[in-house]
Amino acid sequence: MTDLRERVTDQELKRELQRRLDDARARTLSLISPLSDEDLLKQHSPIMSPLIWDVAHIGNFEELWLVQELGDAMPISPLYDEMYDAFKNPRRERAKLPLLDRAQAARYLGQVRAAALDNLWRADLGSKDPLTRDGYIFEMILQHEYQHNETMLATLQFVADPGYLPRLPAPRRASASVPDMVFVEAGPFVMGTNDRRVAYDNERAAHEVYLPGFWIDAGPVTNGSYLGFVANGGYARREYWSAAGWRWVQETGASAPQFWEQSQGAWVVNVFGHRLALNPPEPVQHVCFYEAEAFARWAGKRLPSEAEWEKAASWEPEGRVKRTYPWGDTPPTPEQANLDQLSFHPMEVGAYPQGVSPYGCHQMIGDVWEWVDTSFLAYPGFEAWPYREYSEVFFGDEYKILRGGSWAVRPGAARVTFRNWDYPVRRQIFSGFRCARDA
Ligand SMILES: [Fe+2]
User: Fold this and answer.
1) How far is the CA of 219 from the centre of ligand 1 (A)?
2) N or C: which end of the chain has fewer CB within 10 A?
């Protein structure tokens, strides 16, 4: 009996993984379907890949793990393994490679997927091998595709006028009033996770962290608040900026978030080619770490640490339990968080009262990635797995952490323990922040 039940569960899991693999591919292809062949091959920004590189790289990463590793197969083409290796080819060089075109990439992706699905149906998901147990390696491949979809969206913002011009859904308005800050009392909480089903190596191990009491913004910083900093001459006043931040302002001449434009005395935001009037209650987006830091100083606050962010997002103080999401352990619904890419921008602060954390923090998952004042470092008990190049090679002071996931994150890659990182100067990503303050 046990055997039969396990086999049914295994089949169900495989069916679900196949469904999600299909869904991920449909999304990837739908993102590029409106583009001309020329726009697919073009380098739209020196810091982004040509979109067609991302597409074939998604296929190549799937081939490496689900076909070569799982099926012990020879490479379909050693040239592809070379060309679509992110470490061997910096983004600004990728347009010079003899990249597969749209039709060739589609054929390659189809060939890889057919072999990958064969291996899925052959795999032992009840195995002791952590690579296949509970379908881990398939989850990793899914998340990789989701994450590249987000990177592709960041590139799509640079498509020349008139732009990518997606259909924008009706904006979701605030339905709850959100306090300025909430208090998180002193005490220990559990940071990170021991999950081996979906979590990346850098989210492990779960470990107890003691934090003194602190205040944290109940919502992400809004366009309206950020406009106050801009209008107050924030970008021209040295005292708000760190030394590195001030150097960045001088070098770039930045005077507002990326994609903000002035039109007849009013601010408009360029959303994939749509010029929208700046909406004050929406979270500010496309700011770099230095801008977040300077705003916080101007506001008499500071950025939260990574641990403070995670405690405020996930700790349930009465039961002393850690949640997977601010609202509990059930997967995100559209009522709880702005995720899954098709909103194309963040929604107003206060629009998701059903997604609030036990401490009363709104929109910690979805809308915008939130910069925190912590470098990307290993947790105690960290072990690189299944490859060093996902996390370990990036550990160090060069990168700052972002938490929570943006509107461009697919729900399968959203959770309170997920750690994103980038250079502190980056702002083409869907990044915002919230502030904190000592008790
Ligand atoms: Fe990748």
Assistant:
1) 31
2) N
Distance 91 CA to ligand 1 centre (A): 11
- CA-wise closest residue to 403 among 366, 356, 361, 369: 369
What pLDDT does residue 6 have? 54
Q: Per residue in 329-341, pLDDT tens?
A: 999 999 999 999 9
Residue with tokens 């996770």: 193
CA–centroid distance, residue 191 to ligand 1 (Å) = 26
pLDDT of residue 7: 55
Distance 363 CA to ligand 1 centre (A): 27
| CA 57 to centroid of ligand 1, rounded, Å | 7
Element (H, E) at 8: helix 2-32
Structure tokens at 239: 């005292």
pLDDT band at 9 (very low <50, low <70, confident <90, very high): confident
CA distance 54 to 111: 17
Element (H, E) at 7: helix 2-32
**For the whole model, what pTM was predicted?**
0.96
Closest CA to 307 of 186, 411, 195: 186
- How far does the centroid of ligand 1 lie from the alpha carbon of residue 55, in Å? 10
**Angle formed at CA 17 by CA 12 and CA 19, multiple of 5 degrees:** 95
87 CA distance to ligand 1 middle (Å): 10
Cα separation, 116 vs 121, in Å, equals 9
Residues with Cβ within 8 Å of residue 177, at least 6 apart in sequence: 350
Give the residue from 99, 217, 169 showing the smallest Cα distance to 407. Answer: 169
**Quick one: average pLDDT of 234-251?**
98
Residues 71 and 26: beta-carbon distance below 8 Å: no
**Ligand 1 centroid distance, CA of 147 (Å):** 8
> How many helices (H) does the chain have, and how many strands (E)?
11, 14
Instruction: Give residue 39's pLDDT.
Output: 96
Q: How confident is the model at residue 2 (pLDDT cuts 50, 70, 90)?
A: very low
Please report, for residues 30, 87, 155, 253, 269, the alpha-carbon distance to residue 45 in angstroms, rounded to integers and kept in the order given.
21, 18, 7, 18, 19
